[in-house]
Amino acid sequence: MIDRRSFIVAALATLLPPGASAAGRPGQPEPQTLDYGPAKLDIYAPAGAKNLPVVFFVHGGAWRFGKRSQVGSKPDFLLANGFVFVSIDYRMLPEADVATQAGDVEKAYAYVRANIARHGGDPDRIVGMGHSAGCHLVALTGMRGGLPCVAALILDDTRAYDLAALSRNGGMARAYARVFSDPKQWAALSPATFVEGKKHPPTFIAYSRAPGRGEESKAFAERLRATGTKVTLFDGSAYTHMSINGNFGEDGDALTAAALAFLKATVA
User: Fold this and answer.
1) Using CA atoms, how far apart are residues 81 and 50, in angstroms rounded to an integer?
2) What is the end-to-end Cα distance of the chain in Å, rounded?
3) pLDDT of residue 28
4) Are 158 and 132 in contact (CB under 8 A)?
5) How far apart are alpha carbons 178 and 182 in whole angstroms?
């Protein structure tokens, strides 16, 4: 859930000129923009890239805001460490509901998997990564099998792992209450629904100090571990909901170091 201040920050960010938070950063590599059908995606690749692991990123914004250029230092950092980086747009509420957004993520992933080799990426070493609403969408599509052959998942700070449990715990308020207003859809839109019965790709779960993040993240991690899935749980209680994403790739950032170690252990 994003608080009032975070909503304002996200809304203001959408008013920035295109690329202001990506290509406009000093030293930021220029992406190649491609149309995958419902929306566009950006591919950042080092010069001469060949068969490199790929980080496939889905931005947050309460399912209503945000854009693919809001990537901070991620491209610089990941390219410097031997990765190709992809950031996608997907259709926003109210134009598209969450089920449609999940479908967009799966279409973008399928496009990347089919085409990333020509940009220097390895289609068999793609890591799905998302923050906030994007974290929920990556978790949902990853758990339900919508990201075939995904090598690993990095889930960065959401409460939307189990919507029915969230409601029971009093967390179905504000953004969540507006986005997930129909209880009949909760099971289909909850990543936890699809956990049992199979082992999932290695999963890195991070949570901030925002209300409820730790409890829901720990519960989801335990459900995954019960299937034999390798889970890394990162205590990000030193971070706000925004900084746990915005600081990624910055010098000395603890989450960045932990995520890089996870990436090296799984796909690098």
Assistant:
1) 14
2) 32
3) 65
4) yes
5) 9
